[in-house]
Amino acid sequence: MVVSKENVIFVYRNGDPDSHNLASYYQQIYDLDGEQLLGIDCSDTEILPDYTTFRNEVETPILAVLPLRATWVIILGYNVPGGFYDGSDIISSTSRVSRIEHPYNKMAKSNLYNRVVFNRYDSTYGPIALIVSRIDGPTYDDAKRMIDMAHEMHNQALANGRFFFDPFSSLSTVGSGDYSDDLTDFYINMLFDLNMKVCSTTYISPYIDVVFPHLEHDSFYWGGFTDRSTESFFRSTDTERIFFYNADYDSAITMRSTAQGNFCPLALKSDYISIAGAMSNPGAEGFLRPRPFFEALYRGATLGEAYLFSNPYYDWTVAFFGDPLVKVVFYSDPLGTMSPYGARVRIPEADNNTRDPDYVDEDEVNREVSIELAEAVAHYIRKEAEASDLFYSILLSSDVGLETSLLYETLDLMRQTNSNTRFSRFYQSAQDLLIYIKQVLVPLANNQGATLLTVNDYLTWSGLKLSRILSSMISNTEEPISDSNLYPEGYWEYEYTIIDNVSEFTDFNFVLQVSDDNAFSNIIVTANSDGDRTGWYYESEENAWSAIPFTGVPSNYVGRRVQYRSPVANYLTRAEIYYFRIKQTSPVGDSSYSTSSQIIYT
Fold first, then answer.
1. pLDDT-based confidence at 542, cuts 50/70/90?
2. Which of 111, 250, 343, 400 is 20 to 30 A from 103, alpha carbon to alpha carbon?
């Protein structure tokens, strides 16, 4: 079950007619029951002097009602405090209240940030962090208009305008390089998948910020750093203005005045239905990241979910404004005509699906099929060896009756699994695999700019290898598989899907043990990525592998895989079954061992 209006609490300020009226208006628009409105005794000061005051005025009355219903979404209404001071930092109310059921921990890393395997927000995420937004503004009418515009587009917020993207700035601070890299990654790997007309700055200077002179016909704006503007920046438009974010230090320091030229209140008055910005310097590492934000939107998440998933820290300075339940619909463009990269169009997914329903990775299919076929052959080799051992045990027995009753049956079992039988049984399947590579994968690779002719060309180009067991099934073909495209005998790989066993941000390492018995009384191999990263890889992109970092794999990769590739010293015996167990380790805690078995198919 994903978030809906039944999971919302709208908070207003007691004794403030405008604040109460705005809450009642939202209630009327979305048909909320009376218990979903919460009046609190708080001041109308936008930024409170300290956390103690904020806790007393805002957190305590909200905490009192949370156990009464399934609350995953909190909206802080007109004239409700927007944050508090902690030294020179201003902590955003939306960031703090999202962790209201947890102790205040300034600038704590978010374990929901940038989850590379996407899942919709549901009840399992509620205990970790709530979805929180503010609906506030320079005037009551401004705040009310935000509700009206969001309601008009609720669940049908068609992105019918341009995407203005400004990835360049003169900012040079700790982490700014990483942020620039993330913006570039979004531009190359995600932006054009949205099938929107893109306007992007393309000039970078170490001395000046190159900015758009104005926005027009826009639906999204994601800016690099320019920190001040005027209402003239936002020209009139006939498109839906959906989300505005500028990565600066104080664009959200106030939502109740446009006098300072801060972007957030200006975007509000210019009819953006949702906005994010910092109340004080979040550091470059604290800026929102565009790729997780739009990956979430594209897969059917709400704006509130997308904000939560793209914000690197809890209890920090970035704030979110608008109706958090609005979803966005992107144009379909089957020919990819809006993308200079020819990006494949992806279909938004429902609920908790983690991959595109129309997506097939042909290389991965080839790898899995070749492994499964090699494993099947390996099992036949193992059966032949076991039948041979049994045959000679019976033959050397002094029990004539045993020899008479079982010898011929055992000999027949050997014939059913010998090399000639294996060849006749698996030859056609092996041939079909080669035909698939040559007739399907080679043309696909050539469409991507490769120049391939043969199966060996493809294997070398893609980096995929085949089992020597499998190659023995196709050794008499016109094109033998070259030795460089075959796994060494005894080589093996082990894959494991990362789990979330700690429910907070951390870095995971992995301990893998291999035994020749299922009780693990005889450990043959132990590999610990924390002590020696040789052979350890993680799935940095889907079906793409990178060496495990020095610190381990960040927990936002939960749901992705890690892989151990055996070095020569750890090769195992072909066609033997071994038992594997693996566990995650981290400074927060270890998982229990996960066990499995596999046959060596190389």
1. confident
2. 250
Q: Are 162 and 239 in contact (CB under 8 A)?
A: yes
Sequence-ordered list of residues with C-beta below 8 angstroms from that of 351, at least 6 positions apart, any chain: 2, 120, 300
Give pLDDT tens digits for 214-234: 888 899 999 876 667 777 788
Rounded to the nearest 10°, the torsion over CA 375, 362, 499, 491 is 40
More confident residue, 298 or 409: 298
Calpha distance 408→479 (Å, rounded): 39
Top-confidence range, 127-131, 327-331, 371-375, 399-403: 127-131
More confident residue, 331 or 359: 331
As given in the structure block, the two tokens for residue 313 are 């820290």
* Whole-number pLDDT of residue 361: 66
Burial of 267 (0-12, 13-18, 19+ CB in 10 A): buried
Q: What is the pLDDT of residue 28?
A: 95
- What per-residue confidence (pLDDT) applies to 1? 63
User: Which amino acid belongs to residue 480?
Assistant: P
Q: Give strand pairing partners of 525.
A: 514
Q: How many helices (H) and strands (E) does the chain have?
A: 15, 26
CA distance 78 to 17: 10
| C-alpha torsion sign, points 36, 41, 46, 49 | negative
The domain defined by 493-599 folds into Immunoglobulin-like (2.60.40)
> Are the CB atoms for 140 and 174 separated by under 8 Å?
no
- How many Å apart are CA 138 and CA 266, to the nearest integer? 10
Between CA 265 and CA 139 the distance in angstroms is 10
Q: Give the distance, in angstroms, between the CA of residue 419 and the centroid of all CA atoms in the same chain.
A: 46
**Amino acid (1-letter code) at residue 293:** F
Pick the range with the lowest mean pLDDT from 4-8, 251-255, 407-411, 532-536. 407-411
Q: Give the C-alpha separation, 482 to 461, whole Å.
A: 13
Domain ranges of the chain: 5-329, 362-481, 493-599
Interhelix angle 303-310/290-298, nearest 10 degrees: 150
pLDDT reading at 407 higher than 80: no
Question: What DSSP assignment string belongs to 419-470?
Answer: HHHHHHHHHHHHHHHHHHIIIIIHHHHHHTT----SHHHHHHHH---B-HHH
**Which stretches of 241-361 are DSSP H helices?**
263-269, 290-298, 303-310
Question: Phi and psi at residue 421, in whole multiples of 5°?
Answer: -65, -45
Give, as one character, the DSSP assignment of residue 345: P
| Band of pLDDT at residue 171, cut at 50, 70 and 90 | low
Residue-wise pLDDT for 235-246, tens only, equals 888 888 999 999
Q: Yes or no: say if 160 and 219 are a contact pair by the CB < 8 Å rule.
A: yes
